[in-house]
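ok here's Acidic endochitinase:
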Amino acid sequence: MINLAGHCDPYSNGCTGLSSDIKSCQAKGIKVLLSLGGGAGSYSIASVQDAHNVATYLWNNFLGGTSSSRPLGPAVLDGIDFDIEGGSNQHWDDLARFLKGYDKVLITAAPQCPFPDAWIGNALKSGLFDYVWVQFYNNPPCQYTAGGIGNLVAAWKQWTSSIPANKIFLGLPAAPTAAGSGFIPATTLTSSVLPAIKGSAKYGGVMLWSRYYDVQSGYSSSIKNHV
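and the structure:
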């Protein structure tokens, strides 16, 4: 199932027009990835062979391969994001390994901040992931709480010292309504949180959920000069 948030209907071939938009973003240096999983529904990888089959499908339909039924048209996406929040924790490393076997495919993940992540934690140990944007929200034991950054900073240090990814990002809600908990006011982020974590060699920046909320709040504009 492809969820494009109501922008178009992939099942009637109605999303191929997004190809020009994707290419426009890429021309500006913006990486465009397809995210797998999410917080709703049931999904899993059943076996090593299943992982191989899924990787082949993704390569041919969204990445550098060829297919007569590419849902997003001829645009070649830059990689695959693993937002695994349920189902099974098995064989995601196999899928990442098969995808990495193709040329120039970025592999990223969006785990929850409790360490290790229950669903994608084993796969993250593989060293196959380029970027990891950890969700430091909806998880009180490892997120910001009013007046306190200690839990978040401790969790950040554990992630950056334990996961062999190129860069790790601080994942945050872009507005108070974007998540159940964990929102950090922009002034607190720039004055307290970022100075406490930017010293890490693996610090990659800030990930926001989501662009929809960011447009409403202007959060990214208020922090970008500090990131």
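+1. The chain has eight helices and six strands.
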